[in-house]
Specification:
Number of domains: 1
CATH architecture: 3-Layer(aba) Sandwich
Low-confidence stretches: none
Order of helices and strands: EHEEHEHHEHEEHEEEHEEHEH
CATH superfamily: NAD(P)-binding Rossmann-like Domain
CATH class: Alpha Beta
Strand content: 15-25%
Number of helices: 9
Largest sheet: 7 strands, parallel
Radius of gyration: 19 Å
Length: 299
């Protein structure tokens, strides 16, 4: 068995859906430092070192980086509410652009570190379906615009950086933060209808499955500068909700098919969203799991 080089890995947004899974999976192989907001009481998972820090505070970010000297920074922290971003540009700017800027500036004092920026399929308009890495971004909402602005900061910075795009994340295991599985479970167990769009498509991708993939990615001698990481299953929100409800053992007849426009959400979405992850599959030699291939969903 190959010996894994133990690295100092800093994970921002470690209380989030993906960040918390990365802490769990990478902590067994690497020296992990996990950051979370000062307003959060504690991390949902244990790790080597947990740090409360406001990533919008440039001096605090710089001090954190020089103290912990990470070799790899996985930047998961973000303003992830698509609709709030649409209504509050400052929320989007601070959460997605400023935090990335501050990390890149702080990295000037941490020689040899690599930043892995976690981005999104919403940097595309995706009128023709799941795009590949070489396709040109064209966001149609404020969230996507802010994530693309952060991507460009990474591309233009004088540091070693990679952009990994993910999409339609959900968690198989119980998680304190809201996610699609929790929303479906809470709605259906109360006997209520769960409305899901039949015309909104993406690749539902389980967060811990991505975290497992990172254990393989960090073993590579060189990381790609741009990579799409998503499960191959391409489904409407309605079809994925039905599959999730079935895995939870709930009444799938309570999933109500609707047109996306009828939901009257503040932010537009690309109807044919998602990502082509062929490059990732060739790189690691396997595909991420579909909903039916995962262990039993729990809540």
């Amino acid at each position: 068995m190959a010996v894994v080089e133990r690295m100092r890995v800093l994970i921002t947004g470690a209380a989030g859906r993906l960040g918390s899974e990365l802490v769990k999976y990478l902590g067994s192989e690497h020296q992990v430092t996990a950051t979370f907001r000062p307003s959060q009481r504690q991390l949902p998972v244990s790790c080597g070192v947990a740090v409360r820090v406001d990533l919008g505070d440039a001096p605090a970010v710089s001090e954190m980086l020089t103290r912990h000297l990470p070799e790899v920074i996985i930047h998961c922290a973000a303003a992830t509410s698509v609709d709030r971003c649409q209504l509050d540009r400052e929320y989007a700017r601070v959460g997605n652009v400023l935090t990335t800027h501050n990390l890149l500036q702080g990295m000037q004092e941490v020689h040899g570190a690599r930043l892995i920026y976690i981005s999104t399929d919403y940097v595309f308009s995706s009128a023709e379906g799941a795009p590949a890495e070489e396709d040109t971004p064209n966001p149609i909402n404020i969230y996507g615009e802010s994530k693309l602005a952060a991507e460009r900061l990474v591309q233009e910075a004088c540091v070693t950086g990679s952009i990994f795009r993910v999409c339609a994340l959900y968690t198989a295991a119980a998680h304190p933060k809201s996610d699609p599985v929790l929303a479906i479970y809470a709605t259906l167990t109360n006997g209520q209808k769960y409305k899901a769009a039949v015309d909104l498509y993406s690749n539902p991708t389980e967060a811990s499955d991505i975290a497992r993939a990172f254990t393989g990615l960090l073993r590579l001698k060189e990381l790609p500068q741009l990579l799409h990481i998503a499960a191959p299953e391409y489904l409407s929100r309605y079809d994925s909700a039905v599959k999730i409800a079935a895995r939870l053992g709930l009444d799938t007849s309570l999933i109500e098919p609707v047109e996306f426009a009828s939901l009257k959400l503040p932010a537009p979405r690309p109807l044919k969203a998602g990502l082509d992850s062929s490059r990732f599959e060739r790189l690691l030699g396997y595909k991420l799991k579909q909903i039916d291939q995962l262990p039993a969903l729990t809540r």
